[in-house]
Known about the structure:
alpha/beta; 12% strand
Amino acid sequence: xxxLAVDPKAKALIFDLxxxxxxxxxxxxxxxxxxxxxxxxxxxxxxxxxxxxIPAVGTIIKLNELxxxxxxxxxxxxxxxxxxxxxxxxxxPIVPVVHLAKKYHGKLPMAIGTGGYKRxxxxxxxxxxxxxxxxxxxxxxxxxxxxxxxxxxxxxAEQLGVDAEFCQVFEDGDLGxxxxxxxxxxxxxxxxFYEVTIGEEI
Length: 202
């Protein structure tokens, strides 16, 4: 298996959170599955994979389009996040990526750029033992446009004080890689370095 590495040109590192540093995907999946069952939606791992990187509200909007449902995106998105919070203690760190972040702590400036909610993102960082390694976290509450728009990562670069071209982004989703590329940053797809199974009972 290839080894996860920092590009020699990188002067700052930006990490996505869900699915990149923390294996939260099985927990998100079960939270969606539990909430959406009440609306007659059979939420499968395959369907979930097509929605990777989209925040909760955007996911509900997409599901309404797909299934002809009339769920309130804000209300159902909130219920899903509440369900997720009940189970999030079950998440595990993604070891190769967490190891890389710890290795470069204090050597290169680092930030988190996530499509999740800020409070839950910091709680995730605590669960996987990384809250002391990062000072900068840009969440979906800090931006107007979500990934694949580059705003999340550009805000990270701005707060890091490093030009975009010298930032290396670590991501697990296509939307995140598109966002990094649109920002003019180096991008690394971390799923090339580990295997994640979505949909297993947790």
